[in-house]
Amino acid sequence: MLGFAVNNIRSSLAAMPKFCANLSFLFKEKPLLERYAAAKNAGFHCVESGFPFGFTKEQVVDAKNSAGIEQLLINSLTGDVTKGELGFAAIPGKEKEFLHSIKITIDYAKALGAQKIHIMSGKITEGGVTKAHDTAYISNLRNASSLLQQANILGVIEPINRYSIPKYYMNSYEKAIEVIKTINSPNIRLQLDIFHLQLIKGDISHTIDEVKPFIGHVQVAQAPNRGEPDSAGEINYKYVFEALEKSGYNDWIGLEYNPINDTVNGLKWVKDFGFSL
Hints:
Order of helices and strands: HEHEHEHEHEHEHHEHEHH
Number of helices: 11
Strand order of the largest sheet: 1-2-3-4-5-6-7-8
Shape: globular
Distance between the termini: 29 Å
Strand content: 5-15%
Number of strands: 8
Oligomer: single chain
Largest sheet: 8 strands, parallel, barrel
Structural class: alpha/beta
């Protein structure tokens, strides 16, 4: 009887979501490198982040190691964000910049022990999307997939909604899945951010079911204001977490939201939902 109870507990724990703190969004009360320790002190075992602009690889690795926490994912080097650059993957004529950005990001990822890189596609600042953008995107991701395979790192592509980033190239789940199928590499998968999904098309349940074979990473935030999952908004996250579990996804879930007030106080939703960090 005791063995049965233990097995049930283990099954229950295995089914619980694993939450990863996004340091580009959480713990903004502190400078970036101090957020590693802040996440650890809050109870997190894992973090993800955008590319750490302004810090050397050694500085970031030291902050992570000193905190004693795992880094799962890092965004690719985007270029000069003050000039509107958000990656180069779909920008014709920027192939050298893209290759440079991927090599640098892989170098950081390997040093941090990060298993995943979010490859940013870039913004189409003049005119609409053309065949040249599509061709560049496929070609660049093919080249990236070879480098990622050598490094044993997963590359993920993420559709981003037009309200958060107008004119971002990768803004469609249908296009993302088509690209993944075309490249046909185990090192290029889908980053499914439920916040972006809701603002791009909604229909969360059916979309999770349709894209589940291609998912490489999941992130969450409430819509439309990108607060905590339990904040006022359009998404029932208790239902969504159940849907993700039923889909078979059992990897880390990134918390990429803007805390309404203090980050730590805002984490009460985790316990309220019956989960733990």
